[in-house]
Amino acid sequence: MAKWTPKHEAPEPLEGPVVATITGGTILWFVLFLAQLPFYGWFDDHGHLWWLWTCLAGAGLGLIGIWYVRGRDAAIKRAAAAAAASTDTTASPGTAASADPGKGATA
């Protein structure tokens, strides 16, 4: 049997509002947990109690996800700012750039 090899390169990953997406999903899991909470007895009687705990686990894992994607987003922004700062300082070597643009300005 021949080994399968792709005929084209994989597309670039999509970037979007990751923090908002994860936060929305976490809120949805928690709302589902709260909506099912009044029916705890029914779920317990019919062997579906795992539905309730699945929603709570989704909300808990979503909190971890929010923490992770916020840190990732902040790291991406820091890297972009550092890259922009390094290109700004190397782009105009004859001018002295101040770290604070408002410093030294007179009105």
Can you lay out the helices and strands and say which pair or pack?
Layout: H1 18-36, H2 40-45, H3 49-91
Describe it.
The chain has helices spanning about 20-35, 40-45, 50-90. It is mainly alpha-helical and about 110 residues long. The longest helix is centred in the middle third of the chain and has 43 residues, at about 50-90. The termini are far apart. The relative contact order is 0.10. The model has no long low-confidence stretch (mean pLDDT about 85).
Keywords, please?
107 residues, mainly alpha
Rg, nearest Å = 25 Å
Q: Termini distance? A: 78 Å
Major β-sheet profile? none
Low-confidence stretches: none
Q: Which term fits the overall shape?
A: flat
**Derived structural class:** mainly alpha
SSE topology string = HHH
Count, helices: 3
Q: Kindly state the number of beta strands.
A: 0
Instruction: Please state the average pLDDT score.
Output: 86
Instruction: Report the sheet-strand fraction.
Output: under 5%
Q: How helical, in percent, are the residues?
A: 55-70%
Condensed summary:
The protein contains 3 helices and no strands. The chain is an all-alpha fold.
